């Protein structure tokens, strides 16, 4: 780090998608931040709300259609049309979860608890909550509050803050 560089003090991460890869990218970054002593605030909006909704958080899946980074065993590109066949997405999701279990990656609810135990804060988007007719009671207990985007931006202020959109 050069003399002009200042250490990162806060990350504000916005999760708008509910695929396993998007949700876990958010959770890993937030948990990594709190482990490094960096203030972390996570805002779940639109379909990302599935990650913090009690009825949906254990049903996340891997996006197989339209995922250009998807690979088959051996590194060959995954043909997009294959994801449209019934059962393929469920099978790919099960494989992904099995690999995560083998690496001892915690489930979503446990990750949320780790983040908040480390001082991180979890928020839900009011607009998306209203659109999907969800209430605070529908959310995991680690969710601190339901905020408007303006309220989230107020929390994002301060020197050496980064906003990350996953």
If strands are numbered along the chain, what order do they take across the biggest sheet? 4-3-2-1-5
Count of individual domains: 1
Distance linking N and C termini:
26 Å
Number of strands: 5
Question: What is the chain-wise order of helices and strands?
Answer: EHEHHEHEHE
CATH architecture: 3-Layer(aba) Sandwich
Q: Assembly state here? A: single chain
Strand percentage lies at: 15-25%
Largest sheet: 5 strands, parallel
Low-pLDDT parts are none
Shape: globular
Structural class: alpha/beta
Stated plainly, the CATH topology is called: Hypothetical Protein Ychn, Chain: A
Write a concise synopsis of the structure shown:
With 166 residues, the chain is an alpha/beta fold.
Task: Describe, in plain words, how this protein is organized in 3D.
By secondary structure, the chain is of the alpha/beta class. The chain has a single domain, classed as 3-Layer(aba) Sandwich (Hypothetical Protein Ychn, Chain: A), CATH 3.40.1260. Helix content is 33%, strand content 16%. It contains 5 helices and 5 strands. The chain has helices at 20-35, 88-102, 108-117, 126-131, 149-155, and strands at 10-15, 39-44, 121-125, 143-147, 161-165. The protein has a 5-stranded parallel β-sheet with strand order 4-3-2-1-5. Helix 1 (20-35) links the parallel strand 1 and strand 2 (39-44). The longest helix has 16 residues, at 20-35.
